[in-house]
Amino acid sequence: MRYAYYLGCWIPARLDQYDLSTRVVAKKLGIELVDLEGAGCCGTVLVRSVNFKTNIVMSTRILALAKNMGLDLLTLCNGCYESLMEAEYLVKTNKDLREQVNTILKSTDNLVYEGGVKIKHLIEVLYNDIGLDRLRDEIKRPLDGLRVAVHYGCHILRPSNRLKFDNAENPRILDDLVEITGAKSIYWPLKLWCCGSPILAVDENLSLSIAGMKLKSAKEAGADCIVTICPSCQIQFDTFQPDISKVTGEQYNMPVLLYPQLLGLALGFTPKEVGLHLNEISAERLVKALK
Predict the structure, then answer these.
(1) Average pLDDT, whole number, for the chain?
(2) How far apart are the first and last CA of the chain?
(3) pLDDT tens digits, one per residue of 201-260
(4) Contact 186/221 with Cβ under 8 angstroms?
(5) Which residue among 70, 91, 182, 221 is buried most deeply as judged by most CB within 10 Å?
């Protein structure tokens, strides 16, 4: 299995542990990640809110680079996934927009894109291409007794009529992937709430208060940690957790892991090999409990 590997912006800038843990897990499972050289930002969220066509051009350029490599595209970022899927759909179904986009791409990069690249999130590859049975067979250190609050993030599930990644009202893919490690995906009331990250630049207190409500919900449900797949959600819950505590006046001490970090531990990798030392909130007590 070979994929053009697209990291987006947030991961190389702020979440090396997502890339690190993905690479060690991929190598273990025989997934070849071929770096998508020359790729820039996909334009999701921030650019889209200013100029939608620019967003589509930026995402289509990434798809064109993958097409020239002859590979399908693997991404880790929920926002990138949504933006790339949107671009793929519009290029294939909107002739006028496709011509406008290709005119721009030809003039800037001598690229043309007519569609055809499959876009896959990491957990789609693990769930569908590797499969739960194979993953179970590879588990070396079952995470028995670990209670996990699973958080998908908004942009992987919605718009549900376009993405069709999972059931937007009752998703299971990430829950099932968590449970093949031996951990238990617990029920928590605010599981499908937004983390608050999209409004951070507009209303910081509201954004962090929403994240605080989610952290409190996970803690009260008895979670040992939160596991997510979204870079923005990880930064919101983990990097900003001290700031959230200042706003809410509550202490959470809630480790927040990216899924390949959790899977990597279950596959037998050390905490350092999956980049746990790069997380803001220490997972030391969690790791000790698993020994």
Answers:
(1) 95
(2) 33
(3) 899 999 999 999 999 999 999 999 999 999 999 999 999 999 999 999 999 999 999 999
(4) yes
(5) 91
Q: Which residues are bridge partners to 2 per DSSP?
A: 32
Mean pLDDT of 259-275: 97
> Domain 2-121 belongs to what topology?
Glutathione S-transferase Yfyf (Class Pi); Chain A, domain 2 (1.20.1050)
Fold of 132-290: Rossmann fold (3.40.50)
Under 8 Å CB-to-CB from 215, ≥6 apart: which residues?
226, 237, 241, 244, 250, 252, 254
Band the pLDDT of 62: cuts 50, 70, 90. very high
Instruction: Give yes or no for residue 11 having a pLDDT over 80.
Output: yes
Domain ranges of the chain: 2-121, 132-290
The pTM of the full predicted model, rounded to 2 decimals, is 0.96
Question: Identity (one letter) of the amino acid at 86?
Answer: E
Please state which of the ranges 3-12, 46-55, 147-156 shows the lowest mean pLDDT.
46-55
φ, ψ dihedrals at 9, nearest 5°:
-100, -50
SS (H, E, C) the chain: CEEEEECCCHHHHHCHHHHHHHHHHHHHHCCEEEECCCCCCCCCCHHHHHCHHHHHHHHHHHHHHHHHHCCCEEECCHHHHHHHHHHHHHHHHCHHHHHHHHHHHHHHHCCCCCCCCCEEEHHHHHHHHHCHHHHHHHCCCCCCCCEEEEECCCCCCCCHHHHCCCCCCCCCHHHHHHHCCCCEECCCCCCCCCCCHHHCCCCHHHHHHHHHHHHHHHHHCCCCEEEECCHHHHHHHHHCHHHHHHHHCCCCCCCEEEHHHHHHHHCCCCCCCCCHHHCCCCCHHHHHHHC
Q: What is the pLDDT of residue 45?
A: 75
